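Support case: user asked for a sample of complex input and structure output to validate their parser. Sending the pair below.
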Amino acid sequence: MNVQVDTPDQKLRARAQRVIPGGMYGHMRSAGLPAGYPQFFARGEGCHLWDVDGRRYVDFMCSWGPIVLGHKHPAVTEAVQRQMAAGDCLNGPSERMVELAERLVGLIPHADWAMFAKNGTDATTTCVTLARAATGRRKILVAKGAYHGAVPWCSPYPLGVTAEDRAHLLTFTYNDAASLEAAVAQAGDDLAAVIVSAFRHDYGLDQELPDAAFARRARELCDARGAALILDDVRAGFRLTLRGSWDLVGVQPDLSAWSKAIANGYALAAVTGNERFRDAASKVFVTGSFWYSAVSMAASLATIDELERIDGPRRMREMGLRLRQGIAAQAAAAGIGVRQSGPPQMPTLLFDNDPDCAKGDRFTVEALKRGVYLHPRHNMFLSAAHTEADIDFALEATKEAFAALAAR
Amino acid sequence: MNVQVDTPDQKLRARAQRVIPGGMYGHMRSAGLPAGYPQFFARGEGCHLWDVDGRRYVDFMCSWGPIVLGHKHPAVTEAVQRQMAAGDCLNGPSERMVELAERLVGLIPHADWAMFAKNGTDATTTCVTLARAATGRRKILVAKGAYHGAVPWCSPYPLGVTAEDRAHLLTFTYNDAASLEAAVAQAGDDLAAVIVSAFRHDYGLDQELPDAAFARRARELCDARGAALILDDVRAGFRLTLRGSWDLVGVQPDLSAWSKAIANGYALAAVTGNERFRDAASKVFVTGSFWYSAVSMAASLATIDELERIDGPRRMREMGLRLRQGIAAQAAAAGIGVRQSGPPQMPTLLFDNDPDCAKGDRFTVEALKRGVYLHPRHNMFLSAAHTEADIDFALEATKEAFAALAAR
């Protein structure tokens, strides 16, 4: 007798297959993860996550970035409930929008003003549009392999994109000043902007922190050419520092794109800029139906206050270092070569001699079985909700995962 | 002695001027409205809105479309609170995403699948990308003056936009089959899609419902050329019918873009499509940090259920007709020529011999003083929260506004 018992996750996948293209799309498609990972989730509390099959995980993806204080943080929830009782999407913004713009201007050294949107891609696209509007030029320099969003001008996959969508993009290599100089020369007097990620966090590769000399050279080149230096801080913003990630290397951009962690999971993005770009920002037409909604701004104010109060970036760094040191010791003890890269708050863990990521897949699936949600290829995220006990729980799981790997 | 008393709205405007470019941006910038209109809002309840100065309005903008059941509708709030208690932005979608996709596929005749995003512009841009991906062609036909979003390919203002962003757009005149045929011929074998609004709702102009013969011809031309017929239902969707706005003229699109009213003010957008575009939709890379969040999907399920239960489109139509008939009688009695256009659920009111909109500005300011929020140029929006008593209250105000206009 062949009794097949489908789990809730399997049943939902079958239903999704009929009404959602490919069963799911985008970065949250579980097809990008090894077999065994759930597609659908039921609940989140702090740094814990439950899938629809009732399995609980200590989570190191933080919803791919947005959850920076932990799910359902009481200070954020309270601010959200208070604003919901008044109003969210009205005929214009609420006072929260002014408060949040003032907060960002007070917090972020380069920021003289702020604008708000919903997606990280809204913010990067607005920065590019503002750079072109302010300079009257067209060329945008992007690092090879960098992810700046998922619309035609920046999408990592070419399907549905025309050549013209990228007609004015030129590339350089992150942290390679000579390649940036060459791209600047190539752009000539048509250089509108250089856009850089907070650090090199390309999918499936070792991460690279920005080299301070490279960052300074990028600033000099933009200044010399009257171009905009755009920092794409969508992924890293509010995790490494509250002041903008390149503040750590002493370089201020002209324009910054923010999203993900800005409101602890509420949908919000922001652009901040300096005086030089204020006039263009007041003239360019960018907008969206929900861009002025008050609840996500109330959530952001509470999130930033709490991150500042507890020094969230330092706490995430400490917990990230505890995880990194534990994994390094376990790998060494198991005689397995691993590479841990990127800032401790956003670690990437890759295995030596693992071109198809088979070791990474095996390792993360073993950890998953033991209640720890890691990613085999993408950078991961710590939140301020991770405690030493959570990290130690995770290290128990990774220890067994290394043992399983060593036993092969 | 010169005593200046600033209102809360004025104080907020002064603060905003320092930290938000131009004091505000986009469609919710009050600079686009006559003097006297508030910029900042404090509260919403049903069809009523309070500005930060404590003035209450019967509102006919509905947050420029999203509010379709009225602010803080109890059924939506209950669904939202229930989902918030579980989780919103997790490592993947919740069951709500499958339920909502199933609901849309069950409700909308052309829909075999659904995808979700955050902005109307995300949805229109995804439709265009899908059309290009599926056809391998590039040309997109858009109606002159139509608004399909606020990113470079479709922005109504050219600042910051390059020629290449619009290299593959060709234009036709809405409701003019001959002009559409000419544009199709011009696109030749490179025609990817024709994109149409639910009806012609261009800013500052009389609105035009779609002509059924034009709609059928658009369908025929797309079929004959193997191109996609894209319906931009972002503004009108869920107000005229729950089945997609061109269902009213008996024509089904291949792809539809939805947002605004889909979740009664919660940030959500959707693309629906038929089988022909499913494969492309499963391959194109479109995504966003908050696109899988469960709360806005729970809100949408509750919104659609309630709109269906009460036949929201019919109710909005009845209240819109009551307003239209009342205004027509008042205008005739006052001897003032007005034109009311568009579907009753989304009325536009323009004055004869009013090239600079001075009459419209005066009229709406007089109504505003009497607690009724109208728009002098843009189409307005009814919600299912508007009662006969609210319409009659509004008609008292418009009667006095006509009298004030006649007294000039």
